[in-house]
Amino acid sequence: MTNETKLWGGRFSEKTAASVEAFTASIHYDCRLFRQDIAGSQAHAKMLVRQGLITAEEGEQIAKGLAEIEQEIEQGVFVFRPELEDIHMNIEKALVDRIGPAGARLHTARSRNDQINLDLRLYLREETDRLVELLAGVRLSFVRLARRYLGAVMPGYTHMQRAQPVLISHHMLAYFEMFGRDQERLRDCAKRINVLPLGAAALAGTGLPIDREFVASELGFPQVSANSMDTVGDRDFVVEFVSACTLIQLHLSRLSEELVLWSSSEFGFVELADSFCTGSSIMPQKKNPDIPELIRGKSGRVVGNLMALITMLKGLPLTYNRDLQEDKEPVFDTLDTVSRGLAITAELLGNMKFNTARLEDATQTGYMTATDLADYLVLKNVPFREAHAIVGQTVAYCVKKKKELIELTLDELRQFSKAIDEDVFAVLTVKGSVDSRRSFGGTSIFRVKEALEKAERDLGM
């Protein structure tokens, strides 16, 4: 292709080197923006007709031609040409070849700079909604587990050591809250995505009589960008979106770490369905938790994508620079990775069982009701720091005698504090410990039922 046939080639006297065309082309990945590019062009063409910048007949030709091109792309018969660089030029060249001079008028009052910004915003707006729905599916899985195992106990951990007994349902609802924040972040991010950039043109706006508000209305944008220079160089919304996705992936990774641990023989807390595990090529007894391991492993690429975007932007002067072409691959890869992770996690959770007997046994050791004993002393008017020391001495005695707190006699307990009486044994049981955590957000059955019912209402169950 000579530069004369390139849509931007009028100023150039030499043919673009094949190596340059190959290096600068983005069509192999930005082709996924074809629907958004065509939707933006359709709205832009309508506006040009309204403003008298093209005729109604030309507008009809453009609309028909774009619709045909979109259908061909969807059917897989459209041929993308790398020498045309990107999705915009491929579609525009096909339109010009198809309808002639009317197609050449479509680019009136716009630039690829504001065009790609528009495409990305339309694309991320749709993907934000899709991710919110995927998150809802994962949250539903946690709510179902919480309902199924309501009342069953497990050890809660700090520093990866058994700390206090909690309800399994409480643990599951912790993830419900975590992924709920992810939904909130995406919805908030959507507010800044949902701003029309078209009309900023190359960087300074246009001298032609366009109507940006009409285009915004056509495309469902509640706002129009306020500064043309800021608009064409802006990828804050991309970084914010990928940052929100990175937190989703980190949450998936934290869950995956627990599932890997819990499904091991050392823990034996959960059983993952055979259909979601794999075996070993040499060890016939193995059942490997590959899904959570892969999710955990893929977190590196998502974090890396965020770092790539931040690094790309950090030194760019206003306004548009070709560096910004590097925004799309990290976005697409992040979306694909996070979307697949959410979808498979919802399936995995739906096919997982807790070993409630093993979990309850795990709450019987490790002096897990020590804090309850300290609270008991506080209620007996012992200052907390003094109570803390008393219980520490009691635990040291238990370690020496190889006993759990609940196994001590009243006389043994009273040697550490005369405030201890017969009623202490009610608070030293796992059930007593769990039931006592009635503060809002706590693990008592009363509070967990309350939280579970709210979660079910939030999900429309």
Description:
The mean pLDDT is 95. The longest helix has 37 residues, at 112-148. The protein has helices spanning 18-24, 27-30, 34-50, 56-75, 87-99, 101-104, 112-148, 168-193, 212-219, 228-233, 236-262, 290-313, 328-350, 356-362, 370-379, 384-401, 410-414, 430-436, 445-458; strands at residues 153-158, 161-167, 195-196, 223-224, 270-272, 352-354. It folds into three domains: 9-108, Orthogonal Bundle (Fumarase C, Chain B, domain 1), CATH 1.10.275.10; 113-361, Fumarase C, Chain A, domain 2; 364-458, Orthogonal Bundle (Ribonucleotide Reductase Protein R1, domain 1). It starts with 17 loop residues before the first helix and ends with a helix. The protein is built from 19 helices and six strands. 60% of the residues lie in helices and 5% in strands. The protein is elongated and about 100 Å long. With 461 residues, it is mainly alpha-helical. The strands form three sheets. Strands 1-2 form a two-stranded antiparallel ribbon.
